Amino acid sequence: MESAGQPNKYLRPVGNDDGFLWRIYTTWLFEQKDGGTYVENQSAFLSRDISAGAGWLLVSYVESVPRESLAFTLEPTRRESERSQSKSSPD
């Protein structure tokens, strides 16, 4: 977005921005069995090439983003599942 927060803000045309992340495709599958819920996530992160000059600086960051993003999503899901399970289990 150009001029974010301003009245004249606008989206740049696709492919004409400065970001490395180009697209994210994610699918989720939830299945109840064996007395619990199985959660499967499949994600594909498509990124642009990183220039050789910036690569040494950015490569570890770019490689860690998918892992951190998935953990950020799954941790609250796990906590809520455990909380719900403890409420429904007999004391």
Mean pLDDT: 78
Catalogue the unreliable spans.
none
Count helical runs: 1
Largest sheet: 2 strands, antiparallel
Terminal Cα span: 53 Å
Number of domains: 1
Notes on the protein architecture:
This protein has 91 residues and is of the alpha+beta class. It has one domain (21-88). Helix content is 41%, strand content 27%. It contains one helix and two strands. Strands 1-2 form a two-stranded antiparallel sheet. The chain is elongated. The mean pLDDT is 78.
Brief descriptors of the model:
single chain, 91 residues, 1 helix, elongated
Short account of what is shown:
By secondary structure, this protein is α+β, with helices and mostly antiparallel strands. The chain has one domain (about 20-90). The protein has one helix at about 50-90, and strands spanning about 20-35, 35-45.
List the helices and strands and how they pair.
Elements: E1 21-33, E2 36-47, H1 52-88
Antiparallel strand pairs: 1-2
